[in-house]
Amino acid sequence: MTDFEHTAQIVKKNVSLGGKDQSIQALENLHQSNPQNKAHINQLINLYLQQGQIEKACQSMFKLLTLAPEHQTLFQDLLKFSSQQGLFIYAAKAIELVRLQSNDVNPNDYFNYGYYLAKSGANDDAVAAYQQALDRGVDKPEEVYVAIAQLLVNADRHKAITHLQKALSLKPDYIIAMFNLATLYEEMGNRLEAQQLLENILVLEPFHCDALSRLAELVTGKAKQLKVLHAIDQALNITNLNLSDKINLHYARAHLFDKLGQFDNAFQSALQANELNRQVNPQFDLEEYASRVKKLTAYVDGLSSSPPPMPSPVPVFICGMFRSGSTLLEQVLGCHSQITPAGELAFFTKLREFIQRNFSSGTNQVNEQMLSSWRNQYVELLSSYDSGQKLVTDKRPDNIVNIPLIKAMLPDAKFIITQRNPLDIALSVLFLRLGPSQSYATRVQDILDVCSVQQKWLQAFQEKYKDDIIVVKYEDMVTNFTETVTTLLGRLDLNFEPDCFNFHNATNAVQTASVWKVREPLFQTSLDKWKNYRMHLANHS
Fold it and tell me: Is-annotated flag, keyword Transferase (predicted)?
């Protein structure tokens, strides 16, 4: 009996006895000895699927496809399955193998290749593939220009704008391109250009709910605000309006009433928006939220190694409650000659979710080698923001949960925690549509409870990390700007610079709900705004 036959018998016996792990190991050994055997790969695919090892199944399907690239059913199955599982890179590799090397390759093949590369995060390669589609005369090139712009938006906004303008030169009434361009203009502080594009959209589609919602933030002057409010009320009467649009319009309505000084109407609209939003958000669990830092700490507690040197530029983390002044602070610091603002980086939130999804806490499954690897990935990400400055700000409010993880990876990291009157935070958050991961944002009491939990976390962090935790109060920024910013910069080993006064004229992009607040000078009228709603907040004050 040959080794192959002996292994095959072991596989067959283990499968019949339910020993799938042993079968997989035996088959993997067999495949390594005879990588051209399609039957072995097919068996591996089935066993991987039975064991829930989805990525290994995709890898094996691709190996099988390399042996039989003419097998169209397998090609289509791999495209469909890898897409369903979110493993888009295998769809891209399949197209590269089967379509791009065929004699009848066409522009749409390059478009599809770019699409799957983009979905897998390979943005540069995706842009190159889309450009190939354009060069080869793809149908509807305006759609490809929009797709390229979407990939360029973080790396080079000016190039993204150019591609959107190219799309509109081909199809002037292309609403998707108009809206995306308006969004970019808004984020870069170009109010009039953004407003004009949104108004042009409404000429083409009077009840375009996203355009109406954005205009509610942009328009100034009572007459224009009332006009947009009237259009929103008309849109809300559409019988087949989808729930998400309805939610956004009620939030927009609340903002307009607030601007008009009609505070009772504003609060009622905000309540309506949040009541609808609760239908699509998970129910908030305060106990689960309060346990997040403790749970995350359990993964990394006790891990110690000699602290590596801090990367260059050195990251400074800005976090705290949403609507507590973190975007304002980022703008102010970003005007300093030695600080680059990186915006909201999702790195550590995604890493925390990955760890909690794949490891058990307190079981030493996370080790120093993993932390080192993740640290290197983060340092590589930061390098794209290196333009010679000393510091780079990583501003993401919910990184307050991730502080134990960040400290395990970057022991010398400093954190700026922004704080604000909890009632002002609660009011501001209530008027804002946050995502499902912030499901507390739809009730005043839940928002205040989260403020309280974060305050307890802060006290624990201050006790543990000492001077690496810096607290900045929004009220101090407004009432005593120079001293507050000078003190903060001193903690970062920098001197105050007059350009920090000009934060409202900064040209960097702002992608948060504070986009227009940070384009204005600071006024004391931004303090205690909750008092306009004191009657509605009476039970919480």
Answer: yes
pLDDT, tens digit, 9 for 90 and up, residues 500-524: 888 766 555 544 444 435 435 555 6
Q: What 3-state DSSP class applies to 320?
A: strand
Pair 200, 218 in one domain: no
Same-domain check for residues 217 and 355: no
The CATH number covering residue 65 comes to 1.25.40.10
Q: Do 227 and 195 share a structural domain?
A: no
Provide the 10 A C-beta neighbour count for residue 457: 18
- Which structure tokens are listed for 413? 């990291």
Burial pattern 345-369, b for ≥16 Cβ within 10 A else e, equals: bebbbebbeebeeeeebeeeebeee
3-class DSSP string for 419-486: ECCHHHHHHHHHCCCCCHHHHHHHCHHHHHHHHHHHHHHHHHHHHHHHHHEEEEEHHHHHHCHHHHHH
398 has pLDDT over 50: yes
For 107, other C-beta atoms within 10 Å of its C-beta total 17
- Find the distance separating the first CA and the last CA of the chain, reported in whole Å: 83
Determine the pLDDT at residue 174: 97
Q: Are 516 and 402 in contact (CB under 8 A)?
A: no
Residues 357 and 428 in one domain: yes
User: CATH number, domain at 249?
Assistant: 1.25.40
Asked whether residue 486 carries a pLDDT value surpassing 50, the answer given is yes
pLDDT digits (tens, 9 = 90+) for 167-199: 999 999 999 999 999 999 998 888 899 999 999
Q: Residue 407 to residues 87, 315, 340, 387, 413: CA-CA distances in angstroms?
A: 31, 12, 21, 25, 6
Helices (H), 34-71: 38-50, 54-67
Residue 86: phi and psi, rounded to 5, are 75, 15
Encoding tokens for residue 40?
């072995």
Q: Is the pLDDT of residue 155 over 90?
A: no
- Range in 95-104, 150-159, 286-295, 302-311 the model is least confident about: 302-311
Q: Looking at the structure, tell me whether residues 528 and 457 fall in a common domain.
A: yes
Cross-strand bridge partners of residue 314: 391
Per-residue pLDDT, 519: 39
Same-domain pairing of 190 and 273:
no
Give the side-chain half-sphere CA count within 13 A for 283: 2
Domain boundary among 280, 298, 325: 280
Indicate if 268 and 303 belong to the same structural domain: no
Domain that holds residue 157: 3-204
Q: Tokens for 73? A: 């059913």
Domain boundary among 184, 204, 224: 204
Q: Are residues 198 and 226 located together in one domain of the fold?
A: no
Number of domains in the chain: 3
